[in-house]
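// run 5 | inverse folding | seed 20
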């Protein structure tokens, strides 16, 4: 079955379940699922019920597609995402982004948990992604181009919408939330990086490193969506000693920073709506 057939079957099923004309799509990263609790939920559909949807297998990721309102704006929210390291193809990872587009979404808000390589960052900080480096993970557009979604060679000179970045910075300032701006490097995972890899990622110009987001961003830009993304710094890649980074540490740090992310996404959704 080709990609467009899968997408059409997924979209047709969702249209039988919901009548939500959401213009904003949201993807929640590791440990950040509680944001979905402030959404006025109209419909919540387990991924396992949706044709061709993968299922989240990682602790800290929910497994529901939520339709409702956030800050008075209609949204479509993924409580839990899919990762390349789970064994899913790049095409499967980005399927929900393409479904969002086909259901009428115009803007996507992405979040993730990330490790900092910028020495000025600390655990719990938020970094607005202004650019990314994607050489270390598979591009989801490899293969025959789907012309109905977008051009063969999409321009990536502004992957993250500058107007949305400016709005986010205004929201942060108005609410006394410090927001860094920086570069996110995507790697495949699921291993946390070696010390040498962290040093290399810093040298090539990155501020944080993670295992998601970039494939979603590429697919979103390809199909004409505006993208905003933010990283929650959940661990420090370059730090003193040889202490071990664990997934539990990441989830704990994400939970601590969650109220700031919730406020930011709520206010962004309001401004878009």
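// decoded
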């Amino acid at each position: 079955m080709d990609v467009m057939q899968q997408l059409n079957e997924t979209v047709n099923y969702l249209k039988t379940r919901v009548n939500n004309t959401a213009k904003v799509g949201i993807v929640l990263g590791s440990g950040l699922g509680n944001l979905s609790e402030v959404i006025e939920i109209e419909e919540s559909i387990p991924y396992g019920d949706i044709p061709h949807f993968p299922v989240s297998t990682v602790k800290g990721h929910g497994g529901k597609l939520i339709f409702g309102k956030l800050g008075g704006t209609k949204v479509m929210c993924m409580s839990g995402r899919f990762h390349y390291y789970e064994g899913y193809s790049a095409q499967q990872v980005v399927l929900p982004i393409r479904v969002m587009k086909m259901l009428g979404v115009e803007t996507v808000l992405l979040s993730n948990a990330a490790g900092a390589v910028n020495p000025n960052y600390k655990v719990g900080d938020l970094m607005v992604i202004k650019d990314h480096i994607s050489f270390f993970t598979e591009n989801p557009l490899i293969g025959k181009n789907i012309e109905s979604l977008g051009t063969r060679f999409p321009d990536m000179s502004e992957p993250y919408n500058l107007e949305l970045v400016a709005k986010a910075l205004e929201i942060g300032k108005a609410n006394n939330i410090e927001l860094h701006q920086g570069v996110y490097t995507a790697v495949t995972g699921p291993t946390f990086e070696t010390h040498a890899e962290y040093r290399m990622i810093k040298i090539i110009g990155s501020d944080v490193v993670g295992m998601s987001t970039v494939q979603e961003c590429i697919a979103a830009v390809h199909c004409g969506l505006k993208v905003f993304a933010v990283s929650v710094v959940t661990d420090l890649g370059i730090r003193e000693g040889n202490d071990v980074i664990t997934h539990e540490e990441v989830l704990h740090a994400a939970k601590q920073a969650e109220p700031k992310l919730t406020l930011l996404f709520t206010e962004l959704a309001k401004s878009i709506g």
